[in-house]
Amino acid sequence: MLRFKNSSLMALSIQIASTLVVLAFMIFQSFLTFSLFEWATLQGLLASLVSFLARMPLWWIPIHLLFLPLSIATLALDISPLWFLVLFMGMWLVYGKTYKTQVPLYLSSKHVPDALESLLPQNKNFSFIDVGSGCGGLLKNLAGIHKNGRFYGIEAAPIPFLISRLRNMLSVSGCQIVWGDFWQHDFSQYDVVYAYLSPVPMESLWQKARREMRPGSLLISNTFTIPGIEPYKSIPLNDFSNSTLYLWKI
Q1: How far apart (Å, rounded) are the C-alpha atoms in residues 46 and 189?
Q2: pLDDT, the chain, mean
Q3: Which tens digits make up the pLDDT trace of 128-175?
Q4: Which of 11, 23, 86, 113 lies 20 to 30 A from 54 at CA?
Q5: What is the pLDDT of residue 3?
Q6: The pLDDT value given to residue 99
Q7: Angle made by CA atoms 5, 100, 112, in degrees to the nearest 5
Q8: Beta strands per DSSP E along 78-140
Q9: What whole-number distance in Å separates Cα of residue 49 and Cα of residue 65?
């Protein structure tokens, strides 16, 4: 079976293929007289089955199952298309290009600065970057505690970026937060790289870190591990999601 690195692209391909199969069946047979909603349900069943056989993450199965039936049901409600545009724009402003990066908006808990307290240098200057810095809360807290650190953030989702810039302007502890794609950003200038991403990009993040980070620098991941690479240290956070910090030294 053809393998896709981007599960969103694979999901789209499954939806298109299953729709074409059901559409062809509708056209070339005459013994079944289903309603449009029933045909959509059949398409959802087929798409979810293919998703399961393709070993996509299990949460894709209900999405495939319900996507077209709910779309048909929504059309029957005669809702103005403008509302869908507003909803789409709102989600893009909050989540950015999640469909491409496969990294949703995760906010670090208040336990993270405490867990990092003993890990960050106490008596020498250091640089720290949060890749996908969200609303900037972690950077603001760390900058207020560690006066010997230079703190940077990079964020691609519009609303979280604007919130973090506003918080930074109103804070006495300055951080440099920029809009952009951290994959295009050079890690070699940082002593600590912190990431709270998703399982999907972790292997690529490790390859980038190995290429660019200096020997002795530290890669920290919240919750998500690097496949096949054992962290040298793990710190449970005991927060609401029972997450863990994983650390790798370069």
Answers
A1: 49
A2: 83
A3: 999 988 888 888 888 888 888 899 999 888 888 888 888 777 665 668
A4: 23
A5: 37
A6: 52
A7: 100
A8: 126-131
A9: 9
Is-above-0.85 flag for pTM?
A: no
Instruction: Let me know if 25 is exposed, middle or buried by CB neighbors in 10 A (0-12, 13-18, 19+).
Output: middle
Copy the structure tokens of residue 242: 């029972």
50-59: long-range contacts at Cβ-Cβ below 8 A with a sequence spacing of 24 or more? Answer: 50/14, 50/17, 50/18, 51/11, 51/14, 54/1, 54/10, 54/14, 56/7, 56/10, 56/11, 56/14, 57/7
Nearest one of 129, 233, 237, 238 to 246, comparing CA atoms? 233
Cα–Cα distance between 235 and 222 in angstroms, integer? 10
- φ, ψ at 26 (rounded to 5°): -60, -40
- Token readout for 164 is 């973090």
Q: Which of 129, 124, 127, 147 is nearest to 139 (CA)?
A: 129
